[in-house]
Amino acid sequence: MLSDGAGAMWLSDRPDPLQRSLRLDWIDIISYADQIEACMYFGAVKESGQPDPGRLVGWAAQALTTENAPLLMSMKQDVKLLNDHIVRLAWEDALPRVMARRDMEAGDFDFFLPHYSSHYFRERLFKAMEKTGFCIPYDKWFTNLYTKGNTGSASIFIMLDEFVKTRDLQPGEKILCFVPESGRFTSCFFQIGVV
User: Fold this and answer.
1) What's the confidence (pLDDT) of residue 3?
2) Are 158 and 7 in contact (CB under 8 A)?
3) pLDDT of res. 108
4) For the segment 43-81, what is each residue's pLDDT rounded down to a tens digit?
5) pLDDT of the residue at 18
6) pTM value?
7) Residue 76: burial class (beta carbons within 10 Å; 0-12, 13-18, 19+)
């Protein structure tokens, strides 16, 4: 499910006169880490029994052996937890809060750049859009998941770079970016303006 990648953006307080520039208009990040147990973790095991199911016990609290070290020191993801909560929290719960704060509607945006980790989530995200009354048609979506894979935290930077290089963007166009993070269930929405 994960590829590898690195991405970055050049930030400046003025547009680049030699190429199309983007302006970060706003960013909203909502975390659910206080409500849902960790979905992705490393160097730990989850307790499954009482009194605190889902509690992470780090490697330093374990008696490391050659048998359990590979288990403790591997990246783990609770896929059932992810499937049960990511779309509901990251979109259905978070988006109405952002809509109220930003006084925005789906029609305000010319493009939508969503990060989703696999094709499995594409239709689920679209159905969540319909459910929340904030439906951006597929022809406004841009993703490079099928050519670059899920590059994790670098995905939005790699996606934006490819998007800017492959589109004839016009000043005044607005882009909505959506980046859910499943490790601790965080949702990020941000608006970019083309200048």
Assistant:
1) 63
2) yes
3) 97
4) 888 887 767 778 888 888 888 888 888 888 888 888 888
5) 83
6) 0.85
7) middle
Residue of 58, 117, 108 whose CA lies nearest to 83: 117
Q: What number of H helices and E strands is found in the chain?
A: 6, 8
d(CA 99, CA 97): 5
**Cα(80)–Cα(116) distance, integer angstroms:** 16
Distance separating alpha carbons of residues 170 and 110, to the nearest angstrom = 10
Give the chain's residues under pLDDT 70. 1-4, 50
Amino acid at 168: D
Residues 193, 116, 40: CA angle, nearest 5 degrees: 120
- For the chain, report the end-to-end CA distance as a whole number of angstroms: 35
Q: Pairing relation of β-strands 174-181 and 111-114?
A: parallel
In 72-160, DSSP assigns E strands to 76-77, 111-114
Task: Yes or no: say if 142 and 112 are a contact pair by the CB < 8 Å rule.
Answer: yes
What does the CA dihedral 77, 81, 85, 87 come to, rounded to 10 degrees?
40
